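Q: Could you fold this chain for me?
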Amino acid sequence: MKSDETSCHNTWRDKLNNGEIYYDNEPGFAQEQLICLEKLYDINQTRPGEKEKRAALLRDFFGGVGENLYIELPLRANWGRNTYWGSNCYVNFNLTLVDDGDIYIGNNVLIAPNVVIATAGHPVEPELRRKNAQFSKTVRIGNNVWIGANASIMPGVTIGDNSIIGAGSVVTRDIPANVVAVGAPCRVVKEIGETA
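A: Sure. Below is the predicted structure, expressed as structure tokens.
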């Protein structure tokens, strides 16, 4: 089969994994997402004292979970299965994971309330948006990262180990390790350990 014929037969999942444009009305998309959303509903209905039950539901929902993941509810996610957690992570209220593409979160990560981590976006061309076209780019968050309240992490971003993202920041490009970065767009303001 020729390569152009192969691309014509790619499923939405193939296109998503290759960073190509795909559509949410392609066969199987809505049905698969509904299964994930049903699992998410069950997670958000757990009572505060049902820690073991919640932990088991989170392990089933996410693509991978290290030891000691704690998430304050409510949690929002498109899929869940495309997000991978390290160990000893704490997440405060109202985390939103637009995880059409993969999200990798390291060990000892702290996430404040109302954070958005998004892998998906829409094309600039209006005609494609009219057809519900979208694309996804992997997000990577290193070890020992602290993300402040109301921060938004955009598609394709990598945040290096030990860095701090200030509250209200919009992270549109990679942030190196060992820095404090703030703002919209988010920019490095100092290295960890620097004074002033």
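A (continued): Confidence is low (pLDDT under 50) at residues 1-8.
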